[in-house]
């Protein structure tokens, strides 16, 4: 069994515990399984930008896929679809496109973003998306599930460390990743219209309550003026502490910027280490993100 396979199995086992984290994990596993049972695996993608929340979500999603594709998983560890979860039907298509564009409640981003990784220097912001495609690598061939359909929409001036982490994770989890610069809405339209996103009906999003635009239902379709898909929020009710409990207890790799005092990641131009984690005695000068005591100050480094 590979290290990742063992880690995914550990998620399924952790979800059987009766404590707070175990219940949150189990609820997330069941929600994901319910949506997959309704829409089908091929119709679901994940929005992944390398942040701590979507890293938790990716690991949970991969655990569900692992359970669905490995024959000898004990039956009590397999997440089951719940009849108590109502997966909403797609709304009727909007004929008119004259209505004003409103921001999507849970997929928020700056209006523009830089070109993708191959560009050596930033260029003038452009509302049209630029995409690179990362095929699953051969070192992920041992994983039992199909490639994970994924979309990565960058912020303007992204952290190089974050980009590198996303690409490393792409290989680790066998992700079929499309990376877009440009506006959020245009990127989604491009993704859903291209071969990579063709047939996608639902997108897993790592939004939590308390995030900007975090007051959303667990399952909801995008606004009529946006590309239509079901937004799926399995960790909506998780706290900052829950996220770090999961990552640390289950030894899930996360972006190393979080070990350098960053608690929320945006652009290099609007994100600094959290001032509450300043520690001159630390080698880096900062305590890691998981040592933040006041979760309400999670975004204190954003400006």
From TrEMBL:
It is an enzyme of class 2 (transferase). GO terms for biological process: FAD biosynthetic process. Residues 112-128 have a biased composition (Pro residues). GO terms for molecular function: ATP binding; FMN adenylyltransferase activity. Its EC number is 2.7.7.2. Keywords: ATP-binding, FAD, Flavoprotein, FMN, Nucleotide-binding, Nucleotidyltransferase, Transferase. The keyword Nucleotidyltransferase applies. SUPFAM superfamilies: Adenine nucleotide alpha hydrolases-like (SSF52402). The keyword Ubl conjugation does not apply. Residues 89-141, 268-303 are annotated as: Disordered. It catalyses: FMN + ATP + H(+) = FAD + diphosphate. PANTHER family: FAD SYNTHASE, FAD SYNTHETASE-RELATED FMN ADENYLYLTRANSFERASE. It comes from Kwoniella shandongensis. Pathway: Cofactor biosynthesis; FAD biosynthesis; FAD from FMN: step 1/1. Residues 268-284 have a biased composition (Polar residues). This is FAD synthase. InterPro entries: PAPS_reduct_dom, Rossmann-like_a/b/a_fold. The lineage of its organism: Eukaryota, Fungi, Dikarya, Basidiomycota, Agaricomycotina.
């Amino acid at each position: 069994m590979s290290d990742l396979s063992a880690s995914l199995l550990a998620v399924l086992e952790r979800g059987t515990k009766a404590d707070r984290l175990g219940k949150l994990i189990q609820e997330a596993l069941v929600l994901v399984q319910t949506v997959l049972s309704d829409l089908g695996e091929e119709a679901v993608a994940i929005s992944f930008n390398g942040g701590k929340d979507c890293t938790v979500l990716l690991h949970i999603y991969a655990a569900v896929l692992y359970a669905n594709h490995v024959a000898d998983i004990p039956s009590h560890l397999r997440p089951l679809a719940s009849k108590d979860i109502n997966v909403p039907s797609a709304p009727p298509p909007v004929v008119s496109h004259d209505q004003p564009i409103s921001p999507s409640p849970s997929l928020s981003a700056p209006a523009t973003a830089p070109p993708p990784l191959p560009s050596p220097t930033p260029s003038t912001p452009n509302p049209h998306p630029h995409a690179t495609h990362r095929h699953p690598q051969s070192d992920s061939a041992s994983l039992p599930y199909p490639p994970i359909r994924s979309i990565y929409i960058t912020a303007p001036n992204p952290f190089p460390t974050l980009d590198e982490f996303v690409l490393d994770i792409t290989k680790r989890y066998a992700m079929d990743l499309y990376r877009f610069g440009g506006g959020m809405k245009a990127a989604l339209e491009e993704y859903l219209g291209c071969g990579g996103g063709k047939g996608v009906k639902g997108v897993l999003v790592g939004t939590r309550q308390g995030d900007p635009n975090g007051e959303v239902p667990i399952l909801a379709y995008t606004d009529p003026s946006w590309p239509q898909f079901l937004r799926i929020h399995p960790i909506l009710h998780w706290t900052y502490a829950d996220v770090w409990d999961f990552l640390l207890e289950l030894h899930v790799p996360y972006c190393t910027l979080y070990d350098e005092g960053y608690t929320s990641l945006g652009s290099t131009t609007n994100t600094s280490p959290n001032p509450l984690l300043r520690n001159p005695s630390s080698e880096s000068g900062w305590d890691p993100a998981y040592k933040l005591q006041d979760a309400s100050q999670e975004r204190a480094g954003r400006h």
